[in-house]
Write a structure and sequence with these properties.
Layout (H helix, E strand, L loop, with lengths): L5 E4 L7 E5 L19 H4 L9 H12 L3 E4 L21 E2 L2 E2 L8 H23 L5 E8 L13 E4 L7 H9 L6 E3 L11 H7 L5 E7 L6 H22 L2
Parallel strand pairs: 2-3, 2-6, 6-9, 7-8
Antiparallel strand pairs: 1-3, 4-5, 7-9
Helix pairs in contact: 2-6, 4-6
């Protein structure tokens, strides 16, 4: 079977939303370490390798919004599509206390291989889908409830955005309105990372966008994935309406 670095669901769907999942998969392509980064299977199931639950939410959300979904098909440990090409963390050697054996001595040739066969095809597919003039990009990620040696993270959902982003504040307001959620604003990560996927395809292009972080224990099972897809499918159109974008 031929390896493909991304997959798309519903490219013909008419909604102006574009749902993206940068860290959808823990796949290691066969041309990278013969499909093995040198990590135990248990580590490849952790958040260091991909965003557990995020892809399922994306697929369900795409159906509910009648929107296309584009997702990566390689582990973030192979190369991180949510980093700029010049970012020093593009190929991680250490993540949450775990050394990545196959990445310890990645040279320029290996880095170029991963860029050409994984990273750039994914971004090209995303760019093509985002080309519609009125596109609103919704990037869905998940985060671990607690990093090793750190305090537990209380947020159920985080919305990440740069200071001047026009859509995300309306989404935050819609999520906060019922008063039943712990919503992180630029938590558990900063809302602006130059060269990341949202910056490249959303902010720099003037497209409305948001990056959603869901706590992965809440979307580990089908019921939680359905719940969050339903909730997001409700609040995203509300936020777009109030934003007048």
């Amino acid at each position: 079977m031929t390896y493909t670095p991304f997959f798309i669901e519903g490219p013909e769907r008419p909604a102006r939303w574009l749902i993206t999942c940068d860290h959808a998969s823990n796949m290691v392509p066969p041309f990278v370490g013969n499909g093995d980064l040198g990590l135990p299977s248990a580590d490849m199931q952790r958040h260091i390798a991909y965003d557990p639950g995020a892809l399922a939410v994306c697929k369900l959300l795409g159906l509910r919004l009648d929107a296309p979904v584009v997702a990566s098909n390689f582990s973030r440990l192979v190369i991180d599509p949510n980093r700029g090409e010049d970012d020093p963390t593009l190929v991680m050697q250490l993540y949450d206390g775990t050394i990545i054996p196959a990445n310890r001595q990645v040279d320029a040739t290996e880095r170029a291989l991963r860029l050409d066969r994984c990273y750039r095809p994914y971004h090209a597919a995303l760019a093509k889908l985002a080309a519609r003039p009125d596109t609103v990009i919704v990037s869905v990620h998940s985060f671990t409830p607690q990093l090793r040696g750190r305090e537990p993270r209380p947020w159920e959902i985080g919305i990440l955005h740069p200071d001047n982003e026009r859509f995300s504040p309306h989404l935050i307001a819609a999520l906060q309105a019922p008063g039943d959620l712990c919503v992180g604003i630029n938590e558990p990560y900063t809302g602006y990372l130059p060269g990341d996927a949202i910056d490249t395809h959303g902010t720099k292009m003037g497209r409305p966008n948001t990056l959603i972080e869901l706590r992965n224990d809440l979307i580990a099972e089908a019921a939680g994935q359905e719940y969050w897809a339903d909730r997001l499918a409700d609040v995203l159109p509300q936020a777009l309406a109030t934003s007048h974008l």
